Amino acid sequence: MSGLLDLMARLFVAPPDEVPPRPTEDEEVRWLPPVAVTSPRDAPDPPGPVGAEQAQRRGRGAGVDPGVRLAVLCALRDSAVAGGAAGLALAHAARGPTVIVAVWTGEAPASRANRPGTPAARRVAAALRAGGHDAAALGRLVRVGLPVREGDAVAAARMVIGRASGPTALVVCGPRGADFEGLLAEQDLALVAVRGDLAAELGTTAVAELGCLRVPVAVVTLAASTGCAALARSGIGLLPPLRPALLAAVEPLTARKRATR
Predict the structure, then answer these.
(1) 140, 61 Cβ separation under 8 angstroms
(2) 30-72 pLDDT tens trace
(3) Closest among 71, 16, 108, 11 to 253, alpha carbons compared
(4) Angle, to 10 degrees, between the axis of helix 2-12 and the axis of helix 226-233?
């Protein structure tokens, strides 16, 4: 499966920068004069906490909606798939090149194999790591592992979300307390991701629990093949049946946000 993911990543994700080969003696080398920077859009990215603003302007231009804040609630076993699918749906609907996905499991972050990421995702991940966060680029996404303790996790999540220049998804799959309840209430939408025979019952229970937070709630069922789930988990692609379910929940939110700008 890892070989398949690497192949799909090379097809759908921009490869990392490579050093050009040194020309041979038979090749003619011509030095071009330096080109002056004439526009702020052409200037290098200035240092910043996340560095996504310039990346988004280069991605889709004025259509990018930087204000969408999504929460995802799911079981621990579904955190990677639900977070990846929600992040990709948010990137598509918000017309941005990358989305930060902050994940809290209540457990120590597990080590993950490196996966190719887009240039925008790599820049954002590098800036977050420089700020002390556990961040890694995964395709179009930047995954941030939050600390184990709830208070520390909420503080880190507030910092990441508050300083982000683009859309964010907050994945919560551990037993949450009052600290996380307050953070969930600040999000634009709470997405409850469930699967299995008890999906409907679990979704209804979660909606009832979130009612006191006064945040819009949507329920999606994580019905996907192994390959579809692997692509979503790696931030590479969102395919049916995950794609229509996630977009149906996220697109109305981003449309309302864009209309009020």
Answers:
(1) no
(2) 333 443 333 333 333 434 445 444 444 444 444 444 579 999 9
(3) 71
(4) 60
Q: Residue 149 corresponds to which amino acid?
A: R
Q: Is the pLDDT of residue 221 over 60?
A: yes
Q: Is there a cis peptide before residue 109, judged by omega within 30 degrees of 0?
A: no
Give the lowest-confidence range in 28-32, 168-172, 213-217. Answer: 28-32
134, two tokens: 């556990």
**Single-letter amino acid, residue 75:** A
Cβ–Cβ under 8 Å, residues 69 and 161 = yes
Pairwise CA distance, residues 218 & 116, whole Å:
31
Distance CA 123, CA 49 (A): 11
Residue with tokens 């179009």: 140
What is the CA 131 to chain-centroid distance, rounded?
A: 18
Strand intervals (E) in the chain: 69-73, 99-104, 134-138, 141-145, 168-172, 189-194, 217-221
Looking from the CA of 120 toward its CB, the CA atoms found within 13 Å total 21
List pLDDT tens digits, range 103-141. Answer: 999 988 766 555 789 999 999 999 999 999 999 999 999
Q: Where are the beta strands (DSSP E) in 119-210?
A: 134-138, 141-145, 168-172, 189-194
Q: What pLDDT sits at residue 34? A: 40
